[in-house]
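Quarterly update from the structural biology core.
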Amino acid sequence: MSAAGGFTSDPRALLLETFQAAVAAADPLKIVAGHLPPPQSGGRTLVVGAGKAAASMALAVEQAYAGKTQIEGLVVTRYAHGLPTRHVRVIEAGHPVPDEAGEQAAAEILARVSALTPQDRLLVLVSGGGSSLLSLPAEGIPMADLKATTKELLRCGAPITEMNIVRKHISRIQGGRLAQASQAPVTTLIVSDVAGDDPSAIASGPTVADPSTFADALDILRRYGATVPESVRSHLERGARGEVPETPKPGDPLFGRVDNRMIATAHGSLQAAAARFRERGITPVILGDTVTGEAQEVARVYAALVREIRAYNAPFAAPVALISGGECTVTLPAGGGSGKARGGRCSEFLLSLAIELAGTEGVHAIAADTDGIDGSEDNAGALADPTTLARAEAAGVPARGQLDAHDAWGLFDAIGDLVVTGPTRTNVNDYRAILIL
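Predicted structure, tokenized:
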């Protein structure tokens, strides 16, 4: 197959190119400057933030304001995601499970925000991962119990939006409480990593009104059968009885001084990838930027659509690229199963897809996390093609056994099909593309 856009015979290279385009569309060093408020003429400008993109966002702020205004502050990002900055200190901390470094950073951020006056300005930089990185447990909840709660929520397969409802209600800084602590006007720049781009869910919404309640958090624990420490359950129950103040709600006058700006989204990245496919003569179809559910089950649905296209050229005619974003889940057995579980939702989706398609000719796919880290290992995701299962069998890693063990990483590593980028220092969730030729 050849196309006017120049695509001829290297579908894997094209898939990687589109993933790179998706990541570039959310690169803070490229996009932050266009969303900043004018430089402050009087008072202090305090820059704080949390997330996988925090360091690159802080560096972009420094570059944009250089020679125009004085800034200071600190942001917290994941280990190995830091960058050298001059005025905004970068602290690295634990993710996806919080740690004491994040707790100390969050405490300092809250103290500095609380000291601001109405003549100052607060600039908050928010991106995916901020819920774990900006962890300041509510009074009476030790950090060890917050860690245990996070691990349990990750294990039971709760979607990130519901995990964050729980986390907002056991925090002193999330769920709008950071904005509540500031007397200064607040501008927040947000890089979205959640399906639907709900600002109250991204990094658990430190400057966003929170419509959820303590009762909602308790209901989530019940529905997923999550076992949490007594300090956490007791705090949530006291909140549900009105003994602990709720998070600030929509309509609270405090949000009149808060300007939350969404600067990068999954949909924007999918559009950038679609444009790259179109340039190569491939019709792009965006299936949605809010795809959620168990990774294996989502893959089975996508495989059925691929088979329909391959057999009947409907509902889309080849050559076509099916593109989607969002965040699937991988639910592990209680205790983690066999102990071999390696990888993440992208590689598990891709292995399930490969098994369902069983060597179908002319179908190539990529699934990768735009933050550069898919789950437990150091890869962003993986690639699959019609030879994936046969090559895995030859390498002694039968696909079905690897999927059952939740060890997709082991399979793709064995056949050399991991996508490794290192930290991208941004995060607009997962990118999936299935190329049908």
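DSSP finds 16 helices and twelve strands in the chain.
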